[in-house]
């Protein structure tokens, strides 16, 4: 089966909402981030990794408690794992690189926030 934009969105919705989904726009709460291209297909854009606050906070907490060398290796492993997950979803390499850089920046910023403001509750 050819993976068109409509088929991809339906497959994604069925994975999230179960087999009761019959069309790509049945659930009003889902946000589809696709961009039409002239060939009739679509380019699927990844969900912005920097909006995954729980993942960023959890990873930053683990890194902040680790020695520097270990933290760098843990960060590299986490970024690599996320990049491989995006690659399995057939996201273009340039978008994977962009999202990985943004995710790394967000995690590093959160680590520094935790170091400089240890009692901050936000």
The helical percent reads 55-70%
| Helix/strand order | HEEHHH
Count structural domains.
Answer: 2
Cα separation of the termini: 46 Å
What is the count of helical runs? Answer: 4
Give a brief rundown of this model:
The chain has helices at 5-17, 53-64, 68-88, 93-116, and strands at residues 34-36, 42-44. With 122 residues, it is mostly helical.
Structure description:
The structure is a single chain. With 122 residues, the protein is mainly α. The chain folds into two domains: 5-44, no CATH class; 49-116. The chain has four helices and two strands. It has a two-stranded antiparallel ribbon. Helix 3 (68-88) packs antiparallel against helix 4 (93-116). The longest helix is centred in the C-terminal third of the chain and has 24 residues, at 93-116.
Which features does this protein show?
single chain, 122 residues, mainly alpha, 2 domains, elongated
Topology of this structure?
Layout: H1 5-17, E1 34-36, E2 42-44, H2 53-64, H3 68-88, H4 93-116
Antiparallel strand pairs: 1-2
């Amino acid at each position: 089966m050819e993976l068109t934009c409509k088929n991809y969105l339906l497959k994604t919705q069925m994975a999230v909402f179960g087999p009761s989904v019959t069309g790509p726009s049945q659930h009003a709460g889902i946000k589809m981030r696709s961009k039409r291209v002239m060939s009739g297909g679509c380019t699927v854009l990844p969900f912005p990794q920097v909006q995954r606050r729980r993942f960023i906070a959890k990873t930053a907490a683990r890194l902040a408690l680790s020695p520097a060398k270990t933290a760098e290796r843990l960060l590299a492993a986490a970024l690599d794992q996320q990049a491989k997950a995006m690659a399995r979803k057939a996201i273009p390499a340039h978008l994977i690189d962009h999202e990985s850089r943004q995710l790394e920046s967000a995690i590093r910023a959160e680590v520094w926030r935790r170091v400089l403001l240890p009692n901050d509750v936000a």
